Amino acid sequence: MITRFAPSPTGYLHLGHVVNAIYVWGLARARGGRVLLRIEDHDRIRSRPAFEHAILEDLAWLGFVPDEGLNPVRRQSDNGAAYAGALATLQATHHVYACDCSRKEFGGDRYPGTCRGRRLKPGDDVARGTGVRVELDNTPERFVDERLGEVVQTPAEQCGDLLLKDRDGNWTYQFAVTVDDMNDPVDFVVRGLDLLSSTGRQIKLARMLGRPRPPHFFHHSLIIKPDGEKLSKAGGDTGVRELRAAGLGPAAVIGRAAAAVGLIDRERPIEADTLWRLTSASERVRT
């Protein structure tokens, strides 16, 4: 079994990332699997080398040591040829088209297919920039989340035709992570509930690219703030760096994260190498 921890170097690690690491490493160790570290720097505008350095340093400090992807570091920015090859595969087998729409223009999360029949070529509108989309059919995707049970999603209704490359020339998260998980190959994806809605579209896209069987999925709970929002880098939430500077040790930081999502009943120091007991005991949703 191969799973992955895949942070984006657009900010520092916070407790939400620590929760994900707890589950990734905990479930991998409980099942005899391996952890791949992947730096998801597909967003060339917001990604920073300084953030990547800090992420790697904080992970090592916490005691989360990957089995693969550290020497050398696995980065999406090095995978341009793989993404171009996957795009060529889709172009040969499905309807792939250029799109100059912005989210502001069509509003919401679902793209209505405005450019599907325009026959716009990449680069036709230099001022606006041109992205690339692939048309999705209306069939639903059914999968079993190992924590939540059976889930049914219809990506065409959720998001419309999927954006593969944005108007700034960046490969999108949905496309890059699907290609990476095929090529690495990752067969167990452990991530937060905020990414549950991405699962059906990634399964469909992977099948379109030739992956007959999708990975297994486990979507864990999130740390929710009093205002109902999840922790985020953009929100400036307290990071691992600040907790370190305040004098907390690795076990104290891990214990704080574990308590915040109910893995333990009170905040107390927890070592990284004991976490598999916590995660394996909470693999099903508590009633």
Describe what is shown at a glance.
The protein has 287 residues and is α/β, with parallel strands linked by helices.
Mean pLDDT rating: 89
Looking at CATH, which topology would you report? Rossmann fold
Count helical runs: 10
**Strand and helix order:** EHEHEHEHEEEHEHEHEHHH
Low-confidence segments, given as residue ranges, are: none
Strand content: 15-25%
CATH class reads Alpha Beta
Structural account:
- The protein is α/β, with parallel strands linked by helices and 287 residues long.
- The protein has a single domain (2-280), classed as 3-Layer(aba) Sandwich (Rossmann fold), CATH 3.40.50.
- The protein has helices at residues 15-30, 49-62, 80-93, 103-106, 155-158, 173-183, 199-208, 240-245, 250-260, 275-280; strands spanning 2-5, 34-39, 74-75, 96-99, 131-134, 141-145, 149-153, 162-165, 188-192, 216-220.
- The strands form four sheets. Strands 1-2-3 form a three-stranded parallel sheet. Strands 4-5-8 form a three-stranded antiparallel sheet. The chain has a two-stranded antiparallel sheet with strand order 6-7.
- The longest helix has 16 residues, at 15-30.
- The radius of gyration is 20 Å and the shape is globular.
- It starts with a strand and ends in a 7-residue tail after the last helix.
Set down the secondary structure blueprint.
Layout: E1 2-5, H1 15-30, E2 34-39, H2 49-62, E3 74-75, H3 80-93, E4 96-99, H4 103-106, E5 131-134, E6 141-145, E7 149-153, H5 155-158, E8 162-165, H6 173-183, E9 188-192, H7 199-208, E10 216-220, H8 240-245, H9 250-260, H10 275-280
Parallel strand pairs: 1-2, 2-3, 9-10
Antiparallel strand pairs: 4-5, 5-8, 6-7
